[in-house]
Design brief:
The structure is a single chain. The protein has 366 residues and is an alpha/beta fold. It is 38% helix and 19% strand.
């Protein structure tokens, strides 16, 4: 690639997030005459790639290994053949971040939803009751990805009074320590300027359940109706999947947005540090427990249980923490025979201790 063509590629790809670091990483492929581009959509072995020559359709056959974690996904920077029919993607650049969940298959596999993301925007509809456990789950994956999470409470105009909205924001802030919580309304425009400012600072991915208002938010940020939007059901505030693929869009105010389909299942995938980040107050309390291997069930000197007794820590938070940690351990164990054996032994030990405690109680009752 000549200096003139490199300069042209830089200016054409800058709206999609191209920078000097990406250009340096691409240099070996440029020497081979390949074109840099960013994947804006993937569909059945084909992908649309934004390049300096426009949006090209390319085949991913050369970069589709058996490992689903290494397939091309929306947000990847790739090296594309300059011509040919069909045109092929020859490689993708190492990812800075990746948002990964476990698949619903019985095989122990992860699925990459988006790559090279700076901000993970978790959209939560205020048209339905808040599911704090699901928010915690999304945030665990967001922190694990390496992106900065942001919780956006959509449809804020449906909350009848300011006080009620304030309480809802506080509930989510308690669930999301260290994460900004932003109520927005696409109807009144409240909060959209703040959201646009965040989205202009890199690549953002929109996450949430179907009916959370992701496509409406995307249209508001784009300034036009690009994404299809359908009304949610009045009975439960849920909607149908209007977005069926992950689409990357350059925003007019700067930044890049990846809109995703509504996620029914959000399984953890190797997200121990992400769970720890979501429940940072529990991790901090655990450091004060008498025993370093305290599991916060009945151990003497447990600072976590003491915090629950005083009301400092909601019991719901501890139960959610336990649930996500167990799930993450199980996912890890499915791919690690040694770890699986250790978990079984641990479960047997805890079961034996529980039975011994019950026998001791029965003995005192006799």
């Amino acid at each position: 690639m000549t200096s003139t063509s490199a300069s042209s590629a830089f200016s054409a790809l800058a709206p999609y997030g191209w920078d000097e670091a990406w250009a340096d990483a691409f240099a070996p492929y440029a020497a081979q005459g390949l074109l840099p581009g960013r994947v804006i959509r993937v569909d059945r072995g084909q992908c649309d790639v934004a390049t300096a020559d426009g949006v090209l359709r390319a085949d991913t056959a050369f970069v589709t290994p058996h490992d689903p974690m290494r397939v091309v996904c929306t947000g990847d920077w790739v090296a594309v053949e300059p011509g040919g029919s069909p045109r092929y993607v020859r490689a993708y650049l190492p990812r800075r971040t990746a948002f990964v969940r476990s698949t619903s298959s019985k095989r122990s596999e992860g699925q990459i939803l988006a790559a090279n993301v700076d901000h993970a925007i978790v959209a939560v509809s205020l048209a339905a009751d808040l599911d704090l456990g699901r928010i915690e789950r999304f945030l665990a994956l967001a922190w694990e990805s390496g992106a900065q999470p942001l919780v956006v409470l959509t449809k804020a105009d449906l909350v009848p009074d300011v006080t009620g909205l304030s309480y809802l924001v506080q509930d989510v802030e308690t669930t999301a320590p260290g994460v900004p919580v932003l109520p927005v309304s696409a109807v009144t425009g409240d909060g959209l300027d703040v959201l646009a400012a965040v989205a202009s600072g890199g690549t953002s991915v929109l996450l949430g359940q179907s009916g959370a208002g992701k496509s409406t938010l995307a249209n508001a940020l784009l300034g036009e109706d690009v994404m299809d939007v359908r009304a949610t059901r009045d009975v439960d505030g849920k909607g149908r999947h209007t977005t069926t693929t992950r689409n990357l869009l350059a925003l007019p105010g700067g930044g890049v947005l990846i809109d995703t389909p509504g996620l029914r299942g959000v399984g953890l995938w190797d997200a121990e540090s992400g769970v720890g980040q979501v429940f940072s107050e529990i991790e901090e309390l655990a450091g004060r427990c008498r025993f370093h291997d305290c599991v916060h069930h009945s151990e003497p000197g447990c600072a976590v249980l003491a915090a629950i007794e005083t009301g400092e820590l909601p019991e719901r938070r501890l139960e959610s923490y336990r649930k996500l940690m167990r799930e993450n351990e199980w996912i890890a164990a499915k791919t690690d025979a040694r770890l699986r054996s250790e978990i079984r032994r641990d479960w047997k030990r805890k079961g034996a201790e529980g039975r011994a405690a019950m026998e001791a109680k029965r003995g005192r009752w006799r």
